[in-house]
Amino acid sequence: MKKKKAGKKPEKVKIKKIKVKKPPQPEWKTKPIGGMIFEAGNSLKYLTGTWKTARPITNYDKCIHCLKCVVYCPENCIKAKNDKKDHTEYQYCKGCGICAQVCPVKCIKMEDEDKFQE
Amino acid sequence: MVKTLALTGSEASAEAWRQINPDVAPVYPITPTTEIISKFSQYHADGKVDTEMMLVECEHSAMSAAVGAAASSARTVTATDSQGLAYMWEVIPIASGLRLPIVMQIANRALSSPGNIHCDHGDSMACRDTSWIQIFSETAQEVYEHTLLATKLAEHKDVQLPAMVMQDGFITSGNLEKVKVYNDTDVRQFIGSYNPTYSMLDLQKPHSFGALNLHDSYFESKRQQEEAMRNAKKLYLQIGKDLSKITGNKYDYFEKYRLDDAQYVIICLNATGGTTKEVIDRLRAKKKKVGLLRIKLFRPFPYDEIANALKKARAIAVLDRSESYGAYPPVFGEINNALNLLKKKPKVQSYIFGIGGRYIFEKDIENVYSELMRNKFRKEPQYIGVR
Amino acid sequence: MDFKDYARQPQKLASGQKSCSGCGFPIIIRMAMSAIDRPFVVCQGTGCVSVTTTTWPFTSWKMPTIHSAFPNLASTAAGVETAVRVMKKKGKLKKDIKVVAFGGDGGTYDIGIQALSGAIERRHNILYICYDNQAYMNTGGQRSSATPYGAATATTPHGTLHHGKELFRKDLTYIVAAHDVAYVAQASIFDFADLTRKVKRAMEVDGFAFINILSPCVLFWKIPTSDAYKISELAVKTCFWPLYEVDHGKWILNFKPEHKMQIEAFLKPQGRFKQLLELRNRHIVDGLQQRVDRKWKELLFMCEKTKEKPEKKEVKKVKKKKIVKKPVKKGVKRKPEPKIKTSKTRSKFAKLKDKLKRKRR
Question: How far is the C-alpha of C11 from the C-alpha of B381, rounded, in Å?
């Protein structure tokens, strides 16, 4: 039997090549213990913006920069710069429309998300 | 300098706590463990420890507070039994799942209902699958030493699991015995300071403890716990060796009493070992080859070592002080698994005794040995002392 | 604190948490944490917060945080707080770390009230914020003891025989105040300045502080996703959710609506109260209105009672008493009294006597 197997050399070589590859370490050996999460605030990698069906569009000409929308945005995706409303991070915006409702001058309009899909 | 004191099992636990000087002790009274708490409260009142006592409103909160404190890099101890342990149960797997080395004293007591305050092991057996290290102790001396050992073992960086130290309620916890108490400085040097790998108070490395781990990640965490348990088994002997430098005692997984040439062996936990030893001495005088194997480390369970120790035995009786209703009792199940590792399996019989604190007498144990010698084996567990 | 101060601050809860679109609690947590200007750690109770902010491998918290179980938020926080105290005492910790706990109404009003009560009694230095969405929303909207009278939930649905929850809600803020706690307040996202001021005050006090905040739930209050602010406003203006605080036993009303709106205004936009607006269910609305009115009166009474003007009040009361007594005298005592008449008759007799005397003379 051994002799027969030795005759099939090319096959053996192939198998050896596969064996050379080190098996990756099982995940449980590298995972932080106790199901802990070490990277604080890493939920930024999770883009909740894909959920939305409507998108808030700000008319900056009408905006009085009171920043009420910044405070009432549950996702904190409306950003201010130098005490002025700057932009909306649509990758996190869930399209709830609270910003449009709290706006005292009604300069935010909720528009269909479909329009913005390419 | 070694002092010999007359202490009950409870006082021996409290004495160990005094030497360990834990940071936080969230406790709630329950018979018979209350004695530990009361004694330790006196140490606290006299300023012998700088522990922060948390006198909480229930056992559930006691364990919850222990989880909070231990996660915040505080060395934490608590004590309970029976209904208290059952009430805590929700938080018990959380403590081990979060990998917090809390050390808990348990003076075993029967679970209700019917109401009972006396000893059986039903309460701690209900926690055997919660990934807590479980160490059973026969005497007050052992309770004291096991508490020190458990603290060191639980906090080891390769383990990081909570531990329970068991003693028989009233039988050990209430009886006065001579206890050798070792030098405070030696003990404290052995225990060392607690420097956990992860802490809630580390603002530089903010970690999220107790996150939601769903089907994609939960299994891995549990596999890690199993690995930690395996490590604990190895480290138990190693840390035991360190402790024996102070105490001079041996710390094996189990106690072997006249076991090496024994043909008829009884296996039990805790204080019943003492009664059995008396009987063995008497039977040995009559040249009967009888012996005892008393398990100390129940979780992680030393299967191979026990199988090895029972290699030469002809017949074995496993005495359980707890029931697993509708199944074989817990210790018997484990011993049976261990014996399956042997090529030639000795005969083994299950006995259940002492439920709810029912006494076991020397004549009962003699009777067990004689049944083994008469080769009397039955499929069902046999009851000792039930009327 | 105003909106600009909020915008200037670095966010302590990162975006990307998985709560429903338009959910109230992220607003509450962001507002509350923006008012905290010292190092703190967060304890979470089981519920929407823990599930949506810490789902492995993502966490939204930028500070250390712990989640243990459902009923034990207060006791876990107490454990952390005790550890902070011990570590400071032993010199292992130099910073003054505050413990902040976020729990839902289920874990606070119901299953966690024992732990909460115990932690308050032991005077732990914790800020406990309850986001009250008035039912077990994380498990699918079952009734809790915070659910208001008449609300439809998964376990108290509107049917032909029963109409929503038939019991009144527990007033937890009162219960906590009865513990003689250092600071307790009721707040709403409707008033940002008030909410942040309360959190700041709660961080100042030495001892247990509790803030109860109404958290609109889009899914089970059955409201549009954009209505969290509007509903909160209506809750305050109908006096369903009055804004007040109890600072070391002193009750202070923070917001008194100019025109107290009828409770229907709060019920109407919410799907969970939909059936109450039918005519046959009028009595339920009336019951709720009566309850709100009574509670509002009670609150005003408590605020008045604990005001620091004891002397002036007494003088006023005496004056009032006199005013009240006068009409009673007019109505009851004076009519049967014939004194005036008798005096008149007497005088007549006197006149006659005089005449007779004169005649005799």
Answer: 64
Sheet holding B254-257, edge to edge: B254-257, B290-295, B264-269, B315-320, B347-353, B382-384
Task: Please check whether residue B98 is in contact with residue B67, taking contact to mean a CB–CB distance below 8 angstroms.
Answer: yes
Whether B206 and A40 lie within 8 Å, measured CB to CB: yes
pLDDT at position C1, please? 84
Q: Determine contact, residues C251/C298, Cβ cutoff 8 Å.
A: no
Are B48 and B98 in contact by the 8 Å Cβ rule? The answer is no
Q: Which of B123, B116, B10 is nearest to B358 (CA)?
A: B116
CB B358 within 8 A of CB B326: no
- Reported as a pLDDT band with limits 50, 70 and 90, residue C358 is confident
- Which residues contact residue B178 at a Cβ distance below 8 angstroms, ignoring those fewer than 6 apart? B4, B5, B6, B141
The first and second tokens of residue B253, run together, are 């997984």
Query: Between B211, B219, B228, which is nearest A36 by CB?
Result: B211
Of B247, B279, B295, the last residue of a domain is: B247
What is the per-residue pLDDT for C334?
52
Which amino acid type is present at position B214? L
Q: How confident is the model at residue A21 (pLDDT cuts 50, 70, 90)?
A: low
User: Which chain B residues touch C89 with a CB distance below 8 Å?
Assistant: 50, 52
Closest chain C residue to the Cα of A93, Cα to Cα: C21
pLDDT, tens digit, for every residue of B40-85? 999 999 999 999 999 999 999 999 999 999 999 999 999 999 999 9
> What is the rounded CA–CA span in Å between residue C107 and residue C115?
10
When CB atoms are compared, the residue of C7, C16, C62 closest to A92 is: C16
Say yes or no: B216 and B296 in one domain: no
| Domain coordinates in residue numbering, chain C | 3-305, 310-360
Range of the domain at B124: 3-247
- pLDDT of res. C316: 52
Residue B331 has which token pair? 């210790």
Does C312 score more than 70 pLDDT? no
Q: Express as a percent the part of chain B with pLDDT over 90.
A: 99
Cα C108–chain centre separation: 14
The CATH number corresponding to C3-305 among 3.40.50.970, 3.40.50.2000, 1.10.630.10, 2.40.160.60 equals 3.40.50.970
In single-letter form, the type of residue at position C138 comes to: N
Could you say which of B91, B202, B208 has the minimum Cβ distance to residue C68? B91
- Cβ distance B68 to C77 less than 8 Å, yes or no, reads yes
Alpha helices in chain C (DSSP H): 3-8, 25-34, 48-53, 73-89, 105, 113-121, 172-177, 192-204, 228-237, 264-267, 282-305, 310-328, 339-360
Instruction: Mutate one of A27, A30, A31, A36 to test the B interface: name it (highest B CB count within 10 A).
Output: A36
Sign of CA dihedral B372, B378, B380, B384: negative
Evaluate if residue A5 carries a pLDDT over 60.
no
pTM: 0.89
| Distance (Å, whole) CA B146 – CA B164 | 10
Please indicate whether, in this complex, the C-beta atoms of A40 and C63 are within 8 angstroms of each other. yes
Helix (H, G, I), strand (E, B) or coil at C239: coil
Q: What distance in Å separates residue C62's CA from the closest CA in chain B?
A: 7
Can you tell me the distance from the alpha carbon of B189 to that of B183, in angstroms, rounded to the nearest whole number?
A: 10
C-alpha span between B299 and B134 (Å, rounded): 5
Amino acid at B275: T
Selected residues 164-193 of chain C with any CB under 8 Å from a CB in chain A: 189, 192
Nearest to B64 by CA among A45, C200, C72: C72
Question: How far apart, in whole angstroms, are the C-alpha atoms of residue C190 and residue C255?
Answer: 11
Domains and CATH numbers, chain A: 2-35 (no CATH), 43-116 (3.30.70.20)
Which ipTM value was assigned to this complex? 0.94
